From TrEMBL:
This is TIGR03862 family flavoprotein. InterPro entries: BaiN-like (IPR004792), BaiN-like_dom_sf (IPR023166), FAD/NAD-bd_sf (IPR036188), Flavoprotein_PP4765 (IPR022460), RsdA/BaiN/AoA(So)-like_dom (IPR055178), RsdA/BaiN/AoA(So)_Rossmann (IPR057661). Residues 2-399 form the RsdA/BaiN/AoA(So)-like Rossmann fold-like domain. Gene3D superfamilies: FAD/NAD(P)-binding domain, HI0933 insert domain-like, Translation factors. The lineage of its organism: Bacteria, Pseudomonadati, Bacteroidota, Cytophagia, Cytophagales. Residues 197-348 form the RsdA/BaiN/AoA(So)-like insert domain.
Length: 407
């Protein structure tokens, strides 16, 4: 009796570990030459494994799926994740932002290496360069050994006791998460919500002058909102194609909703979120004298380059505004969004297998014995550790469902 996991990302590897620990024979098939490629990519830009949010707040990050994630997170919580990492010899710490990171001495590759060592010790068999091609009858899985080259090789069918599909979303295709699995599950009638970019940059139609002059530069300590929505704090990155950064990523769902409703998606940038409105106004009422607009902003509000250029780009007459109008502009600078960056660039994807297609154990209703974990399910969450935690928690959850079902 063996359990088969398809996909060697964090969700699949966690399911494999939990099932092997419960005494099951586990075989994991991964299409790429190595497992955990996106996991390693996640490590390049900070590598937040999870977040120290209290559980109710944590679950609310999964939007419409909050109740389900509240249950998943209480089964495998951020504390469990930290204990799991510590058990692999990787200590973690909570950063000032609340994000949970491995301590500096540990690189993502160290964590993955230790994890794979543990899986080997538990007897998990990992077959890389093995691509899942679809279902075969009521109980089988079609696989191809691609060790001789992508798209070629011996095809075979296996009939596991239970299967976990953990094939990821549809961004960063070079890591293996290419979304090519969609027709394979649609074939048996599983509803899949179309993919859309999540946690990605927004495109702005900057002038050529602005693109050349400003390039890529951060704006620290700002607040950003979409239309009349709630504001998000953080650091904004101006780029040649638009804006990036944590607040933009957090607002992707709102931008996407506004754009798909055909309406305008306008970001409102507050450059001075910590200054009370009266204090801001008082500073702007100071006489400007002979100082240029840029010097005045720098002297009174410490707003240096590229802020004056940004203001002129979006409001050419900004230097001539009175104090009240300028205060309004500095606290709600409208930036019209023309689109979102392409799917493949996104940190994560919205869409995937609809939750209506799975039961409370994340088992496909159409195919008893086949479970789904990780980003291939239709959920989204902001950056800050919520993505990996969601993948780990769904991986642990399906392992529990299978172990209970077999037990
Ligand atoms: C730039 C970047 C930075 C990120 N930073 C963070 C971060 O700091 N914190 C955080 O929480 N999250 C972060 N993430 C997100 C996180 O990496 C993903 O959410 C997570 O890796 C998804 O895990 P998964 O197991 O669901 O899928 P994946 O990691 O995508 O794994 C799916 C696996 O399935 C394999 N596969 C696909 N199709 C087949 C097939 N037909 N047969 C066999 N195998 C197949 C793929 O090759 C892949 O190895 C980041 C992502 C990116 C791109």
């Amino acid at each position: 009796m063996s359990i088969v996991i398809i996909g060697g990302g964090p969700a699949g590897l966690m399911a494999a570990q939990r099932l092997a620990e419960a005494g099951h024979r586990v075989q994991l098939f991964e299409a790429q030459a190595t497992v955990g490629r996106k996991f390693l990519v996640a490590g390049h830009g900070g590598f937040n494994l999870s977040n120290s949010d209290e559980l109710a707040g944590f679950a609310s990050r999964y939007g419409a799926e909050q109740p389900r994630f509240a249950e998943l997170l209480s089964h495998f919580s951020p504390d469990d994740l930290r204990a799991w990492a510590a058990d692999l010899g990787i200590e973690t710490f909570v950063g000032t932002s609340g994000r949970i990171f491995p301590v500096a001495a540990h690189k993502p590759a160290d964590l993955l290496r230790a994890w794979l060592g543990r899986l080997r010790a538990l007897g998990v068999e990992i077959f890389t360069r093995h691509r899942w091609l679809g279902f075969a009858g009521a109980a089988g899985l079609r696989l191809r050994d691609e060790n001789s080259g992508p798209g070629t090789g011996r095809e075979f069918v296996i009939k596991p006791t239970a299967t976990v599909l953990a094939l990821g979303g549809a961004s960063w295709a070079k890591t293996g998460s290419d979304g090519a699995w969609v027709p394979l599950v649609q074939e048996i009638g599983v509803p899949v919500v179309p993919f859309a970019p999540a946690n990605c940059g927004a495109e702005i139609a900057w002038s050529e002058f602005f693109r050349e002059k400003v390039g890529r530069v951060p704006l620290k300590n700002i607040a950003l909102r979409v239309n009349d929505g709630p504001a998000v704090r953080g650091e904004l990155l101006l780029t040649e194609y638009g804006v990036e950064g944590t607040p933009v990523y957090a607002l992707t769902p709102a931008v996407r909703a506004a754009l798909s409703a055909g309406g305008p998606a306008v970001l409102h940038l507050n450059l001075k979120p910590d200054l009370p409105p009266a204090a801001l106004l008082q500073k702007l009422r100071q006489p400007r004298g002979k100082a240029s607009f840029a010097d005045f902003l720098k002297r009174t509000l410490h707003l240096a380059a590229p802020v004056p250029t940004l203001l002129r780009e979006l409001r050419p007459d900004c230097a001539n505004l009175n104090a009240e109008a300028l205060a309004g502009l500095l606290t709600a600078l409208p930036i019209p969004v023309s689109g979102l960056r392409p799917l493949d660039e996104a940190i994560s994807t919205a869409g995937g297998i609809s939750f209506s297609a799975v039961d409370e154990h994340l088992m496909l209703r159409q195919r008893p014995g086949t479970y789904v974990a990780g980003e291939m399910l239709d959920w989204e969450a902001p950056t800050g550790g919520y993505l990996l935690q969601g993948c780990f928690s769904t991986g642990a959850w399906v392992a529990r469902g299978i172990a209970e079902g077999l037990g």
